[in-house]
Amino acid sequence: MDKQFKVGGVSKSKGGYKVRFATDLTRVKILAKTDSDINLIELPKAMTKPELVSFLKTSELYTNANYRAAIDAADSKYNGVVSTKAAKVKPSLEAIKARATAKEAVAE
To answer: Where in the chain are the domains?
Structure first.
């Protein structure tokens, strides 16, 4: 089961704005040491990170342009399209022989 968070929001760190996840509002004390423009809200229910980011897109935080960029980045990270790796197809013996024949023909 994924970890559940009861508080979420955005804060400005050295690298820019980031979406923050917390179990309670005491996280503000920790963030205040390094971050500024901290805006955390209590959620209506405990949520996973993907659910929390989707909720933030419907909250008033999304109206701030700086916050919107951070929320969109987190949305693509946590709710993005899952990429699947294509399985490599092994060449058949006939394909290998055909390549060898083609190389011999070019070499002549």
So the answer is: 1-108
